[in-house]
TrEMBL record:
The keyword Lyase applies. This is 3-methylfumaryl-CoA hydratase. One of its GO terms (molecular function) is (3R)-hydroxyacyl-[acyl-carrier-protein] dehydratase activity. Residues 78-136 form the FAS1-like dehydratase domain. Keywords: Lyase. Transmembrane segments: none annotated. It comes from the Bacteria. InterPro entries: FAS1-like_DH_region, HotDog_dom_sf, Mitochondrial_HTD2. Pfam families: FAS1_DH_region (PF13452). It comes from Limibacillus halophilus.
Length: 279
C-alpha cells in the first residue's frame, strides 16, 4: 500500500463523487461551442474531455476561498501561493461513457512539486482521477494545477515559440465573456479570473478575463474529432504555456499525427496537446 501524500498537517484523502451523466449538460456545451452536429440523445457516447461537465464539487458558499475555488487545505493541499492556474493533464480513455448513466469519480492528490519558473516560484499539484461506470474504469486522468505568487508589476506573457510542425487543419476563435460564463457554469467552476474582470485585473494582475485551460483543451480536441470523425480517441495530453484572455483571437490547429496547438494572436503556442487514437 502506498503512503498518502502529506504537506505539514495536511494529508491527501481520496474523494469520491457520484453523478448522473445527464443529457442537458452535454447538449448545453454542444450549443455553447456551436457544434454543428445533431443534438445528443440518451445512449450517445459522451465526447472525450466532456466528463469535465460532471462530478461537480459543490462546496458551500462559506467554504470558498478568495479566488472562488473551495478553500485549500481540504481535498487540495494548503499551498501558500495565491494564484491558481490549470497547467495541463494526461488522460487515458479506456471505454466510452454513454449519456444517461450514473458514474463515479474517485480522486486523490498524488504529487506536489516545487519548481523555480522564469516568473517566480511555482507549486505544481497533481490530482489523479478515475471515472468508472458500474465499477469499470472509463477514464483515468492526471490533472496538473499550478500555484504562483501574487502578481508584481505589469503583466508579462511567458516567452513562447511557434508550433514545431506545419498544421494541417485550423479553426479561429475569439472567446467572449458569455462563453466563459457558460463554461464556468457548466463545470460549476467559481474561479473569479474567468468572470470577474475587476478581480482578474486588480487581484491577479491579468489584463482581462482568463480563458479556461480545460475549454482550450476541449476546443483543440474538438478540432481533431471534426477532422477524424471515425477515430476513437484513446489518450490525450496537454500543457498550457501562455494564457489567453477574453476578446483575443486565437487559432486551434492540428497536424495529421495528432499534434494539436492553441496558437495565440502573436503566433505563439498557448497550449500544446497530443491526441492518441485508433481508427
Ligand atoms: C504555468 C506558467 C505560469 C509557468 O510559467 P514560467 O515561465 O514561470 O515557468 P517556466 O520557466 O516556463 O517553467 C518552469 C518549470 O515549470 C514547468 N512547466 C511550465 N509550464 C508547465 C505546464 N503548463 N505544465 C507542467 N509543467 C510546466 C517547466 O517544464 C519547468 O519545469 P522544469 O524546471 O522541471 O524544467 C506559464 O506556463 C503559464 O502562464 N501557462 C498558462 C497557464 C494557463 O493559461 N492556464 C489556463 C487558464 S487558468 C484556468 O483555466 C484555471 C481553472 C480552470 O479555473 C482552474 O483553476 O482549475
Amino acid at each position: 500500500m502506498t503512503e498518502a501524500l502529506q504537506q505539514g498537517n495536511w494529508t491527501a484523502k481520496p474523494e469520491v463523487i457520484s453523478d448522473h451523466v445527464d443529457l442537458m449538460r452535454a447538449r448545453a456545451l454542444q450549443a455553447s461551442l456551436d457544434l454543428e452536429e445533431r443534438a445528443f440523445e440518451i445512449g450517445d457516447t459522451l465526447p472525450p474531455l466532456w466528463h469535465w461537465l460532471y462530478f461537480w464539487k459543490v462546496a458551500p458558499d462559506h467554504a470558498l476561498g478568495p479566488d472562488g475555488h473551495p478553500e485549500r487545505g481540504g481535498f487540495l493541499p494548503p499551498v501558500a501561493q495565491a494564484r491558481r492556474m490549470w497547467a495541463g493533464g494526461r488522460l487515458i480513455f479506456h471505454r466510452p461513457i454513454p449519456l444517461g448513466v450514473r458514474a463515479e469519480r474517485r480522486s486523490e492528490v498524488t504529487r506536489i512539486e516545487e519548481k523555480q519558473g522564469r516568473s517566480g516560484p511555482l507549486t505544481f499539484v497533481t490530482a489523479t482521477h478515475t471515472i468508472s461506470v458500474n465499477g469499470i474504469a472509463a477514464v483515468t486522468e492526471e490533472q496538473d494545477i499550478v500555484y504562483r505568487q501574487p502578481a508584481a508589476g505589469a503583466f508579462e506573457r511567458p516567452p513562447g515559440k511557434p508550433p514545431q510542425a506545419e498544421p494541417r487543419w485550423q479553426r479561429e476563435f475569439c472567446v467572449d465573456p458569455v462563453l466563459l460564463f457558460r463554461y464556468s457554469a457548466l463545470t460549476f467552476n467559481g474561479h473569479r479570473i474567468h468572470y470577474d474582470a475587476d478581480y482578474a485585473r486588480d487581484e491577479e494582475g491579468y489584463p482581462g478575463l482568463v480563458v479556461h485551460g480545460p475549454l482550450l483543451a476541449t476546443l483543440a480536441l474538438e478540432l481533431f474529432r471534426a477532422h477524424n470523425p471515425r477515430a476513437l480517441v484513446t489518450g490525450y495530453r496537454f500543457r498550457a504555456l501562455r494564457p489567453i484572455f477574453a476578446g483575443e483571437g486565437f487559432t486551434a490547429a492540428g497536424a495529421a499525427d495528432g499534434g494539436l496547438w492553441i496558437i495565440d494572436s502573436e503566433g505563439l503556442v498557448a497550449m500544446e496537446a497530443e491526441a492518441e487514437s485508433e481508427s
